[in-house]
Amino acid sequence: MTTLIGEAVAAMAVGLLLFVAAVRWPGWMSLGCITVAACYDLFNAGTTAINIGVSIYLLDLACIALVGIALLHLARYPSTFPLDAYPCIALFVLLALNFARGVALYGPKEAGNMSRNLFFFVAPALALMLLRPVLSLHAERLVNLVVWSGLCLTAVALLRWTHVLPVISETWDGFREVPRVLPSDYAIPVGLAFIAAGYRAMAERKGSIWWMTAGLLGGVTLALQHRSVWVATILGFAWLVLRTLRRMSPLRLAGIALSGILGLGIITVATPKMLNTVDTLLTSNIRETEKSDSTWEWRVRGYDEAYERLLHSDLTDILVGPPAGVVDNSGGSYASRHIHSRYVDTFANYGIVGLVTLLLWFTLLWRRLRSAHAAAKGKRRVDASVCLEALFIAEVIYLIPYFGGVAEGSFLGLLWVAAQRREVATLAQVSRARGYLFRSRQDAFGRRSGDDWVKQSGLQGR
């Protein structure tokens, strides 16, 4: 009895401390929740769960805490609610509706398992959008954050290739000479980091360190062998190159081309075996796509089956999707139940309304990015806004063959925050600690109330 009382008191004390920290440092606490969720997912940290009718995992708790921190901030400063968050709210409403319908049919556990997919994707993005006033984040700072995240994941990949860290069994498929050591959701951040480092190397002329960083990240992206990540990275980088190089002088373009040719020449002479490995790697992956049972063909068959299943449902299911759990109990193939596409999965599980809402969210985010580009002053900020566009393009293309998770939702939320062009100048004036990603509430709002600060900064209703 004494032990139970002690555990209850300790839990209450920890909860109180976390609550105070969430009120005092919402930015840092949100970053902590995202880091915990991403690490748990990346390192496959076990299956221990709290069973309260539905199994609650650490990843669930981290996302719930993230949303709770954002709602706590919104309750204190309600006028900071951004209009662009309404599509995310609508997706949450659809999720809750179908979860409730699924609970009535299959119980909370099975309905909860089918609802996690969208929750992990939308929850981080919505929370970061609501926490916008306490995030001192602009385009250049986000670019640096993306590069550092990619380098951290590169370190994990290198440690797994050298067997310092164990390789997760889900990433090992057996037929590749170089094994996949990162799942696709954590390979795309490496590709995004390659785009960001390439921007720093080309547009900002930061010297050889950024060229070497871009080369490292590009090589790791290639070695991870996620073909969808390759395509997304190439198209995003192509957007960056086309939008950036056209503003450069012919002399600068010639210098970049010459540097690239010299770099490839040095690599060819110094490491001929590496080129053979790259050739083998590319050949094996291209041959895999030509097979009748390739992963893309497998996905497409699942898409077709999911479309047919939904279109033969009643009108309610076509509009808002079937109850959570129906798809998993439909008896269909694995590819049609665990759909590898954010767009097709949203349509199959949340109907026409869900898909339109998702596309509306992405459209609003793209408009924010374009508006930030149009309002940018000076070459440095213009180039940074182009880099954000390239990162967004790579991300939405990646979501065609994959449904994404915490990492992708968090990135889209941070991308939206960085696109708020009017907030950048205001935060630069208000913040006393430039160089930090998050500001304390004292720095954010000073001695004024939060609502007064919002009105004066022009953030209300945006």
Write structural notes for this entry.
With 462 residues, this protein is an all-alpha fold. It has one domain (83-247, 291-457). It is 73% helix and 1% strand. The chain contains 20 helices and two strands. A two-stranded antiparallel sheet has the order 1-2. Strand 1 and strand 2 form a beta hairpin. 41% of the residues are buried. Residues 422-461 have low confidence and may be disordered.
Spell out the blueprint of helices and strands:
Layout: H1 2-24, H2 26-42, E1 50-51, E2 55-56, H3 58-76, H4 86-106, H5 108-130, H6 139-161, H7 184-202, H8 208-224, H9 227-245, H10 250-270, H11 272-289, H12 295-311, H13 315-320, H14 334-337, H15 342-375, H16 379-398, H17 406-418, H18 421-430, H19 441-445, H20 450-457
Antiparallel strand pairs: 1-2
Helix pairs in contact: 1-2, 2-3, 3-5, 4-5, 4-15, 5-17, 6-7, 7-8, 7-9, 7-16, 9-16, 12-15, 15-16
